[in-house]
Design brief:
The structure is a single chain. By secondary structure, the chain is of the alpha/beta class. The chain has 2 domains: 129 residues, 3-Layer(aba) Sandwich (Rossmann fold); 92 residues, Arc Repressor Mutant, subunit A (Orthogonal Bundle). It has a 5-stranded parallel beta sheet with strand order 2-1-3-6-7, sandwiched between helices. The chain has a 4-stranded antiparallel beta sheet with strand order 8-9-10-11. A two-stranded antiparallel sheet has the order 4-5. The protein is elongated, with a radius of gyration of 20 Å.
């Protein structure tokens, strides 16, 4: 099941460290579409300073920087945060550089000039990594926030509500298909496989989830299915 890249990354900050003349309009546009905030630095020194000040969720850096090496910068970042996802961009295709990137456990190594599909693929890997290892939050349409790691809803009034197993599985199914209508049979198959479920139990699950996340977030198209709006 493919998670929505935009929904996962949209609440996060990315630190982009690159020589000024190498940053393309394409790269800038993609990052601004997918992230809540894009922090740009043109040198490794300022990059590590902004990393410590801004506490980004993702780092993207050039292999070659104006006053240093991207690999050395990544090693410094790893000392501050051993698990933060890092993507390296490079004009060099030499296996030597790829092996160096693997040693510091980067998410992906993207060759420049950057193709949109390659950068988006790397960001998709980043989103999946964060879902499995990081603290990812999704801002719902009414402003409530879902925490993937804690399986909780933070409401606008500051209260935190824990979701049950089927509630968070259902919500994550709806998030991953946001804007699309999912019919009752697909939901039953995903949540209960071959197990028989009564109509009242099905409706009760949706009722509880809507109460917790906000009724306006989940649309019920009678006779068709359900969708997250």
């Amino acid at each position: 099941m493919a998670y929505s890249l935009k929904e996962i990354l949209k609440s996060l900050k990315v630190l982009f460290i690159s020589k000024e003349d190498l940053i393309s309009e394409k790269e800038n546009n993609i990052l601004n579409i997918f992230f809540n905030k894009v922090i740009i630095s043109h040198t490794s020194g300022i990059g590590i300073k902004k990393f410590c000040e801004e506490h980004p969720d993702v780092v993207i850096t050039d292999f070659d920087l104006a006053n240093g090496c991207g690999i050395e910068l990544c090693k410094k970042i790893r000392k501050h945060n051993p698990t933060i996802p890092i993507i390296i961009l490079s004009e060099k295709k030499d296996e030597k550089y790829l092996f160096e990137a693997i040693r510091i456990q980067v998410i992906d190594f993207v060759v420049r000039p950057t193709k949109a599909e390659d950068l988006i693929y790397a960001l998709n890997l980043t989103a999946k990594y964060l879902l499995n290892h990081g603290n990812v939050t999704i801002i719902l349409s009414n402003g409530n926030i879902y925490d993937y790691q804690e399986k909780t809803i933070l409401k606008n009034n500051g209260t935190i509500t824990k979701l049950t197993k089927n509630e968070f599985r259902l919500l994550e199914l709806l998030i991953s298909n946001k804007g699309q209508t999912i019919n009752k049979e697909e939901i039953e198959s995903y949540l209960w496989a071959d197990e028989q479920i009564t109509e009242s139990a099905f409706k009760s699950l949706f009722s509880r989830l809507r109460q917790k996340v906000g009724k306006e977030n989940i649309k019920n198209s009678f006779g068709i299915g359900y969708q997250l709006v």
